[in-house]
Amino acid sequence: MKTAITLLLLLALVTGCRPTGQTPTELVPATQPNAAQQALMERQYGMFIHFGVNTFTNHEWSDGTTPASAYHPTQLDCDQWVRVAHDAGFRYVLLITKHHDGFCLWDSQYTDYDVASSPVKTDVVAEVAKACQKYGLDFAIYYSLWDRHEPSYKDKDFNKYIHYMENQLTELLTHYGPVHEVWFDGGWDKQPEEWQLPRIYSHIKRLQPQCAVGVNHTIVLEEGKRQFTLPDLMTEDNKYYFQYFPSDFRLWDPKIAHKLDKKQYLHEGKSYYLPFEHTICLSKAWNWFQKDRQVPVRDLDELEELFYWCTDNGNTLVVNIPPDQTGRIRENEANAIITLNQRLGGIRKGKPLPRNGKFISMIQPATATSEAPEHAAAAATDGGMQTYWAAEKNDTTATLVIPLNEEEAFNKITIFEYCDMKNGSDGFSNVRTNRIQRYAIDIWKNNGWVTIYCDDQPMGDCKVIRLPQTYHTSQARLHVLEATAPPAIYELHIIHKP
After folding, report:
1. Which residues contact 359 (CB under 8 A, 6 or more apart)?
2. Are 188 and 163 in contact (CB under 8 A)?
3. How far is residue 229 from each of residues 88, 211, 394, measured CA to CA in Å?
4. C-alpha neighbours within 13 Å on the C-beta side of residue 393
5. Which among 142, 125, 114, 117 has a CA at the least distance from the CA of 78?
6. What is the distance between the alpha carbons of residues 265 and 271, in angstroms, rounded to a whole number?
7. Are residues 316 and 40 in contact, defined by beta-carbon separation less than 8 angstroms?
8. 6 pLDDT exceeds 50?
9. pLDDT tens digit string along 389-437?
10. Whose CA is closest to 289, among 46, 47, 55?
């Protein structure tokens, strides 16, 4: 264990190192965002970077026994990571500083399980923070509460680990300039009260007054009970409760918030404003740490529609783009996310993010020729990404009909298909297989159905149909002509895009 503590760190522990003139933005009952929340909502779009000892073992989670010597990037280039983020239009970088394995990407005075004990001793946190200043991006950190390596984590006196965390957070929040966000994960391994979050939260605010703090799986159904609340349910103000208090924003990695997401949540009878931050993977396989085997990235259409969805309604999005074992982001992945920025018209700092069009089918009472139990047709237009319509067993040629206001024009249709999934050996990555193989989109015109689009290729994870002209109709129909299993749709939306 390292024992030397620098004078700067000692001063930080004593004084709190609060920047002159800054008042901590601690969470208080409110119906509007505070300064830290407002800044988060204005950033809106960030790059998530998973990198660490797991990168070199093809694991998502390791148990803390992998030796530090396994960490050995051959061409480490943190500047390249942030340059890609800049070129892709991201406004901040969220770096994994310590994952559940406990391996630290900085030279921590409190552990030997870090980059300083590895073959490549570069302080990654320092290099990423420096590159963020160079390219004009905000810097944010992820820190795992759960630590599968640190001995004090298993001590009967858990205060020893809380003190360990405070010491490491002091290093992270005093050595690397402004930190705009702290993203905590792994809370499920202990009861919420064991983490002493009010103490940790106040410690962070003393060191970085304007920093936003969030804890994964923030909200529950009932106060004091660990019954998780999926984002699909978060459509009413003042109905659900904090599991982890205080938190400046909600997290449910990697779920997607409801289109009608609400912002007011309860703790001890008081209501607090909480925006939502989304996390998605660039990879089609949903891997967080990079693997030896290269896999395709998500289709550009899916990335674009998820961008619109996840940055809507005052919420934010971080996209995970992990460096590989060389220590660089792969060129094909860099190209994909930069191409997305080009399609979006080039995101500009200080300017509003591009938006999707008007959803004219939202909450319309859809019907279908058949419905599986608990998967009614209305789920396809309800604005939730965890609910879906599915046809009943053995029906592979069902139709879904959506009534519309004939006075409203549309020129775009977006379909998120429910896919069959097979998990990878790492327990996280997966392969998605489309059910719908052949289909048509019809509209009601002159007392009959008229086809405006048809395809004999698998639908894809997210199908976007851009029409060359605007249409008006009283109802539209998805007609599934062939499928490998009963067709199912998370969301089908008919949109007018200016």
Report:
1. 259, 493, 494, 495
2. no
3. 32, 25, 32
4. 2
5. 125
6. 5
7. yes
8. no
9. 999 999 999 999 999 999 999 999 999 999 998 888 777 888 889 999 9
10. 55
Amino acid at 374: E
Are 106 and 154 within 8 A, CB to CB? no
Give the C-alpha separation, 23 to 29, whole Å.
Answer: 17
Residues 6 or more apart whose CB falls under 8 angstroms from that of 14 comprise none
In this structure, what token pair is assigned to residue 221? 């159904």
pTM of the model: 0.94
pLDDT at 60 over 50: yes
Model confidence over 292-350: pLDDT tens digits? Answer: 999 899 999 999 999 999 999 999 999 999 999 999 999 999 999 999 999 999 999 88
CA 219/CA 131 separation, integer angstroms: 34
Tokens of 35: 């300064």
Amino acid at 264: Q
SS3 for the chain is CCCCCCHHHHHHHHHCCCCCCCCCCCCCCCCCCCHHHHHHHHHCEEEEECCCHHHHCCCCCCCCCCCHHHCCCCCCCHHHHHHHHHHCCCCEEEEEEECCCCCECCCCCCCCCEHHHCCCCCCHHHHHHHHHHHHCCEEEEEEECCCCCCHHHHCCCCHHHHHHHHHHHHHHHHCCCCCCEEEEECHHHCCHHHHCHHHHHHHHHHHCCCCEEEECCCEECCCCCCCECCHHHCCCCCCCEECCCCCCEEECCCCCCCCCCCCEEEECCEEEECCEEEEEECECCCCCCCCCCCCCECCHHHHHHHHHHHCCCCCEEEEECCCCCCCCCCHHHHHHHHHHHHHCCCCCCCCCCCCCCEECCCCCCCEECCCECCECHHHHHCCCCCCCEECCCCCCCCEEEEECCCCCCEEEEEEEECCEEEECCCCCCEEEECCEEEEEEEEEECCEEEEEEEECCCCCCEEEEEEEEEECCCEEEEEEEEECCCCEEEEEEEEECC
Asked whether residue 365 carries a pLDDT value surpassing 80, the answer given is yes
Of 85, 182, 183, 173, which is closest to residue 131 (Cα–Cα)?
85
What is the distance between the alpha carbons of residues 459 and 488, in angstroms, rounded to a whole number? 11
pLDDT at 13: 37
Closest CA to 141 of 213, 40, 37: 213
